[in-house]
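This section describes the prediction task in plain terms. A model, or a person checking by hand, is given the sequence of a single protein chain and must write out its three-dimensional structure as a string of tokens. No templates, partner chains or ligands are provided. The sample shown here is typical of the held-out split.
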Amino acid sequence: EVDLVESGGGSVQAGGSLRLSCEASGYITSKFCMGWFRQTPGKEREWVALRDVSGAAKYAESVKGRFAIFQEDGKNLLHLQMNSLEREDTAMYYCATRSSICVGNWKQYDYWGQGTQVTVSS
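The expected answer:
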């Protein structure tokens, strides 16, 4: 069992920055992928940024160059640094993990946090 708890969401003006955090606890295997997803009402959940066990990161085209996913050394703490935020980034953001390679399909992730809301206003 893995527990994920997100924090750091909030309201910000366009062009601003936020850092989301995801604290993981429980059994985390050596082969895992952790990632950030987001969802807006009426739309399917989409992947934003993924990080595999080697530290390699992948980003959705819409956030490439603006967002960065990283893990604190020695801690089960995953962050998503979001810069140059746009109104289109407004969504509920979720942290998720799976015990295999990173994939973009949200349905293939085993554990999810409760989500944290990000609202970007112009």
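For orientation: The CA atoms of residues 79 and 90 lie 17 Å apart.
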